[in-house]
Each structure stands twice: as C-alpha cells, then as structure tokens.
C-alpha cells in the first residue's frame, strides 16, 4: 500500500519516513529559484529544509520559477503534491528517504510578468539559479558572455517583455531600483568556474544592450557570490518511482534519488541577508576558486573520462563502468598523471583522498546514474571539464596524451554509433553539428579541432593536434578497448 505525497498525508508518511518537523504555514518566501530540477531539489532545497527543521529562518522559503516549456511540467507535478519532494539519499549500504518542504510555490513560466512582480517584492532577497552549464550564453571560444546570441539580442531589443532568465532578472532588478528597494543577491548554483562572475556578466551584459547606465549599476550594486556545489543526482525514471513505492510506501510523481554525499562552498557575499546555512554544513569562505577547480576538474572531468568509452561500449550505468577494470584504470591514470597535478592546492584538503572518495562515489551501485547522462551536452561541458585541463598542461609544457584520448573518444561518440553498431540518440543541444563534424573527422581529425568555439587555442596547439590525431585514428582502426589498453600499457 502506498500513500500519495501531499500535505494532508504527511502524518501518515511520517510513520516510516522523515518529514518536515516545522509548520509549513509559518514559512514565507525569501528566495526565488530558477531551474527547479533534480539537482536543486537534492541540494539547495535539502539544505534549507534541514535549516527549517532546526526552527530557524522560516522567512527564507523557496518559490520556484522558470522560463522554459519544460518548467511547466515540473510546476504542475510539484503543485499536485503541495510542492513537497521525496529525496532518497543512498550510500552503497543503505538508503534513507525524507520529505522536504522548503518550496512553497512555483510560478508559471507562461507568465513572466508575474515572475517579475515577485522579483520586485522586498521579501525576495536571493535569486538562485541551476540552469545548467549551457544556460549562461557563454562563448566557449572566449569564455565570455555572448551578447550576439539571438535570444539575448531579442531580450536586449525588448527588455519590457523578456523571454530569458536573465531578461527576467534584469527586469526585476530595474523595477526594484525604480521603487527604491534594495537589490536581491543573484546566487548561481551551477557547475561553472567562478559561477558568480559568469552570472554577473550575463545579467549586466544583457542590461547593457538596452541601458548601459543600468548595467553599470548592476555591476556596482548587485552581489553575485561564487559557489561550488556537489551532489551526484541522476535523472528520475520509472525505476526510481518503483523503488520509492516498494521500499518506502510513498507515491511521488517526481522523487529525487541522490548519493548521501553533499557539499556546498559559498562566498559570504549577501548584502540583502541570507539564511544561516552554515548551521547545516555549508562552508562560507573568502575565495571559492580552489574548491571550484578541484570539483570541476577532478569530479566532473572524471565523469567525462569514463562517460565516452563506456557509452561506446554500450555500458548503461556509471557503477558498471567503474566495475570495468580497463575503464577504472583509464580514469585513475588520467586523473593521477594529467588532471590532479594541475589542480592548485585546496585549503585543508588532500587531493588524493578527494579522488579516492570520488572513485567510491562513482562506484555506488545504489545511485543508478547513467552513462548517457554523463555524456549529455559535451559541447558545453568539455570546455570546462576537460579542455581547461588540457590548456593548463600545454601552458606548462606537460604531456596531454590521456586527455587527448579522452577528447578523441568524445569525438568518436558524437559520430552517433556505438562500437556494436547501436545508434546513439541525440545527446547534445548541438548534436547535428557535432555528428556532422565527427563524420568529417573520421578521415580528417583536424575537422574536429577546427571547432574554435569549443576548443579555442587548444585546437591550434601542434602538440595537442598530434596526439589527438594519433588517438582518433587508432580508435577507428583498432577499437576503443585496444587503444585504451595500449594507453594503459604506455604503448601509444
């Protein structure tokens, strides 16, 4: 027997599952969050729920928001269950469920005017974002905000009727300024180095298109703290819903399954105030940069290393890839020899121990994370997770053999078939382009590296070109297993 997740059923659910110990009627909104996906609900919303459970800061509840058609589906699901979410935290040896109640509303993406009105409410003091690496309109070649993007140009031309997240934020800030209301803090929770700076560049860069003076005001007056976030959170499917129903007796249309590990490091730059998140494990530091580098290069880069060989070998789950001795050795060798050596020191952190923990997290069979999810959106992720490490090694005249192989495997994946001949369904916003270029690169490896918007200066490095060409040719002539084996044996 299962119990439908809803406010009226929390007493029944609480007999077997942790539920909010606070009275949700006492909550009031202090945060508007754009991008209410699984990660947000497994991370920021969990931290706030934990804080509310201590009896503190009930004026910092979350209102969800979005501007994409897909956000409407999430809104409808969460509204049907009173904005409650079941979060299942899983280690290799145990699973524990909790119902979180930090969200109290979700604004319709079909009504940007209502979102702007909410953003102008003095009670809203933080606007947070999880809109993915590709959501910030970054030019991969320069790493800067791309003001020439058609969506951005459209919002710049009609700032009174914005369509993008940043257009809505600009409109909200402008209305607050006109009303004499202190600006809210914009807090990015995405896996991007210096994500606060990136968010500021996007908001101010868009404002500049229609109002340069206001753009400067944003730069001078609005806080954009940098932060590092970490929690492996796979997509939800029927598997997860069935486990929740069978093991915990809860019917939740969109539960969240995640690992039991979580980390959040933030710069303490919140002029309009913030909840006391340090009481529930958030680290507030003067400079997030070392933590960003560590996580993005070692963890996210590690995901990218195992993703493409596993995808090409028809491996479905991440833990299955980690059970494959060759793939695990491949990860270890590149991390130890090429990635970790170019990661700057991190306060009170042993990078070797950090990597050991990551191996353990990747190997967790309970998570059910998929290789396809790791392969998603390489055109936006590779520049941040892999190519950045290549660039650092080239600057130091260090070898890039392993990273060149990892990049060549991504190219081979984008060809669109696995080694067994199975079709790889589109898995990138730029899939058609990537597939076309990957086909050209089969006979001319340089075609791939000529994507300057992805590779930047790395693509013109003779050293990298040489190694990439050797690796891609070998993959096509010998196959993934043989090439990786030769690399591990230092024979290529």
How would you describe the overall organization of this protein?
The structure is a single chain. The chain has 492 residues and is of the alpha/beta class. It has 2 domains: 283 residues, NAD(P)-binding Rossmann-like Domain (Rossmann fold), CATH 3.40.50.720; 200 residues, N-(1-d-carboxylethyl)-l-norvaline Dehydrogenase, domain 2 (Orthogonal Bundle). Helix content is 48%, strand content 12%. The strands form 5 sheets. It has a 5-stranded parallel sheet with strand order 6-3-2-7-10, with helices on both faces. Strands 5-4-13 form a 3-stranded mixed sheet, with helices on both faces. It has a 3-stranded mixed sheet with strand order 11-14-15, with helices on one face. α11 runs parallel beside α14.
Using brief descriptors, characterize the structure shown.
492 residues, alpha/beta, Rossmann fold, N-(1-d-carboxylethyl)-l-norvaline Dehydrogenase, domain 2, 5-stranded parallel beta sheet, 3-stranded mixed beta sheet, 22 helices
Entry summary:
This protein is of the alpha/beta class.
What fold name stands as the CATH topology of the largest domain? Rossmann fold
Strand residue percentage: 5-15%
How many helices does DSSP assign? 22
User: Architecture of the largest domain, according to CATH?
Assistant: 3-Layer(aba) Sandwich
Q: What number is the mean pLDDT?
A: 96
Gyration radius from CA atoms, angstroms:
23 Å
Biggest sheet layout: 5 strands, parallel
Helix content: 40-55%
Report how far the terminal alpha carbons are from each other: 58 Å
Sequence stretches where pLDDT stays below 50 over 5 or more residues: none
CATH class of the largest domain: Alpha Beta
Query: How many β-strand runs?
Result: 15
Order of strands across the widest beta sheet? Answer: 6-3-2-7-10
> What is the oligomeric state here?
single chain
